[in-house]
Amino acid sequence: MLELSGVSSRYGVVPMLQDVSMNVMEGEVVSLLGPNGAGKSTMFKVLSGLLPSEGGTVTLAGENVSKLGTEKLSALGIGFVPEGRRLFPSLTVRENLRLGYDAAGCQIPFESRLEEMATLFPRIRERLSQPAGTMSGGEQAMVALARALIGAPKLVIMDEPSLGLSPKLIAEYFQIVKRIREDGTTVLLIEQNAETALSVSDRGYLLVRGRIAAAGTREELLADDTVKHLYL
Ligand SMILES: Nc1ncnc2c1ncn2[C@@H]1O[C@H](COP(=O)(O)OP(=O)(O)OP(=O)(O)O)[C@@H](O)[C@H]1O
Ligand SMILES: [Mg+2]
């Protein structure tokens, strides 16, 4: 579904991502792991069309999307959950969700998708008229995920969604990731928290200083020396 081949990027003259190749197949949950500063959010920026990739290609369902911006990528069926949520704080929850829906160009009516999201996230239901900025951190995390899902994307890419959540909320969040996957949505989960991320993933990649340092199934990565050294 999503395939990166030889992708590099730089900030000015400073190289960041170097020759990254990875793929996510339809129906999979794949983790991109890595310590602070490894280049995970840089990868998110490349995948969401905010930062150009230099050399290499990104393809989505066989189509080269390397040069597309966020709007086009959303319209092609990718839902984005950026680091730090990035909700519009003065807009209501409903308005934030509407923006996600409009970006996706979904054929299903808004009200019916909204009902689906309210079922998936019961706490959102009573709070649709509340300004998003007044929601708790955990609630905002759920709203950001609902905003990415409301347009019925084929693929969701999340950057560090568990950051700042309590262990209980992290568990709840990843339960929802499992549900999304069971509904047939493909997920690329960018996370620092390796054990938690791998617990819901089929496979993963480890990014260290802008390069892929290890790749494999959940079991292979948990047994990998570099992963153990960095995390366990
Ligand atoms: N706009 C920028 N200009 C210059 N350097 C940048 C810029 N954005 C990020 N960097 C640098 O690129 C490196 C990778 O940053 P990135 O945000 O991708 O890391 P990360 O893996 O997401 O880390 P974290 O887990 O802390 O979120 C860091 O050294 C960072 O300082
Ligand atoms: Mg980051």
Provide an overview of this structure.
It is a single chain. The chain is of the alpha/beta class. It has a domain at about 85-155. The protein is about 40% helix and about 25% strand. The protein is built from ten helices and ten strands. The chain has helices spanning about 40-45, 70-75, 95-105, 110-120, 120-125, 135-150, 165-180, 195-200, 220, 225-230, and strands at about 1-10, 15-25, 30-35, 55-60, 65, 80, 155-160, 185-190, 205-210, 210-215. The strands form two sheets. A six-stranded mixed β-sheet has the order 6-7-8-3-9-10, sandwiched between helices. Strands 2-1-4-5 form a four-stranded antiparallel β-sheet, covered by helices on one side. Helix 7 (about 165-180) links the parallel strand 7 (about 155-160) and strand 8. Helix 3 (about 95-105) runs parallel beside helix 6 (about 135-150). The longest helix is centred in the C-terminal third of the chain and has 16 residues, at about 165-180. The chain is globular, with a radius of gyration of 17 Å. The mean pLDDT is about 95. Bound molecules: adenosine-5'-triphosphate and magnesium ion (MG). Magnesium ion binds near residues 41 and 160.
